[in-house]
Amino acid sequence: MGRIILVSNRVADISKAAQAGGMAVALADTLRSREGLWFGWNGRISDRRSEQITTPDISHINNTTIATLPLSSREHEGYYTGYSNNVLWPVFHARLDIAQFESGHFERYLAVNRRFAQALHPLLKPDDTIWVHDYHLIPLALELRKLGVKNPIGFFLHIPVPPAQIFLAIPEHRELARGLAAYDLVGLQTKIDVGNLIDYLQDGAFGQILKDGRIRAFDREMAIASFPVGIDVEGFVGQRARQTRDRSPGIARIIGVDRLDYTKGLPQKFRAFSRFLAQNADYRGKVVLSQIAPPTRESVSAYADIRNELETLSGSINGRFGELDWVPIHYIHRSAPRRTLVDIYRSSRVGLVTPLRDGMNLVAKEYIAAQNPHDPGVLILSRFAGAAEQLKDALIVNPYDIDEMATAIKTALEMPLEERQEHYDSLIDGIKRQDTFMWCRSFLQALERLGRRGTLAVPRQPLEAARKALQEIELARVHPRVGTNRIAPDPI
Ligand code: GDG
């Protein structure tokens, strides 16, 4: 069996993968069981001379080779901040209003991908399988193909794909599509993402769906399929340092854990909690919202704006409802140690996960995994998180609908034990089945199969599958007036 070559913007420290959590665990696990190489940026910003470097620093951990390169500050500004974080991240999360289409950044983005390809190329062997991660590196396969690389190359996008009309707003959308077409397999989080990408490729890049379900575009054929990212359930729950505390009677806690990002819907979440307190005076003094929101990408101005907005909002809500012995919102703008998250999740009555848009959202899965099966808490989940496609037994809400979220908070706090257990049983089952190891295995098996036989069983009618997924989420949504009752499908 050939080696696995992982490529990502940052290379995780595989000796500390368990603490990093999420997919670092699965990727490190794959590299443990098979010879491999992990290639990417080393996190350092050097001077201009580093733009000429195409010989990576090499180190070894067991049978894994780690190969990394620095970025110059000009590259960091154009490739990372300018294009990846100020264009691709907002547009793919359907925030055209925040995107900054400034000239020069795309060229820098391409140049870094080209330099990465030049540095990776001499390290490759003919039977390697290459797996590239995320939006920073869309053009990498095309740059490798230009250098003559014929190996199977797969790409996994961790963030959502926007509807075609939004994708089309990116000035360089066709260059990005051409880049995607250089992969053999493009993996996305959900069926809805697959539908969006195929829609775009047909309308914006004149792609065709072939009989076997693959897509032909720019004279290449690629398979596009969904591989929902999962968590390492046992690893996550098992890492707690002490016996987890169960919930204490008295004050019920609602927990939110989100990087402080404008996609995570934090102001809407705070407003919904405020609306809930305004409408349910009997709950004042009996419930708190604890929001852990570690800082990220602080050099990007939109992140400073969201931070200011949240600080103002939490201050005004606490000022309006708080008492000397009760503060309604605990807002923590710091990272919590990973092993304490299990404890915090488990002792919280409600998990409030309401992003405006999210590729998957692992916090939703971690919250359920941490629950006590005999007395589980309730997950409230945005219909716009990729996780909603799998976790339909959560209380599914529209994060733009403040009243609906306020109602869902009340429903969750008052849900009887039996109903909570029913929801939990069905959710934990799916989370255990589609865990992080299954995600990693199924993607690599699909890619290697494509490499060997050139075919892969993908849904023949991906657009139909996407439509069905959307309809199922709408059916699962909490109805604002009738609590957890599902909306009955229209009889006609
Ligand atoms: C991207 C996509 C997709 C958060 N706060 C703390 C902390 N975390 C951990 C959580 C969770 C992870 O970070 C966050 O993962 P998410 O999936 O929720 O979101 P993104 O960071 O936006 O990740 C996303 C994911 O990639 C994987 O494909 O699901 O849609 O946007 O594991 O627990 N960990 C610690 N302290 C914190 O304060 N230790």
What do these coordinates show?
- By secondary structure, the chain is α/β, with parallel strands linked by helices.
- It has two domains: 4-230 and 437-472, Rossmann fold (3-Layer(aba) Sandwich), CATH 3.40.50; 233-433, 3-Layer(aba) Sandwich (Rossmann fold), CATH 3.40.50.2000.
- The chain contains 17 helices and 16 strands.
- The strands form two sheets. Strands 3-4-2-1-5-6-7-10-9-8 form a ten-stranded mixed β-sheet, with helices on both faces. Strands 13-12-11-14-15-16 form a six-stranded parallel β-sheet, with helices on both faces.
- The model is unreliable at 480-492 (pLDDT under 50).
- Residues 21-23, 158-159, 229, 257, 259, 292, 294, 335-338, 341, 358-363, 366 line the site of GDP-alpha-D-glucose.
- One of its GO terms (molecular function) is alpha,alpha-trehalose-phosphate synthase (UDP-forming) activity.
- Belongs to the glycosyltransferase 20 family.
- This is Alpha,alpha-trehalose-phosphate synthase [UDP-forming].
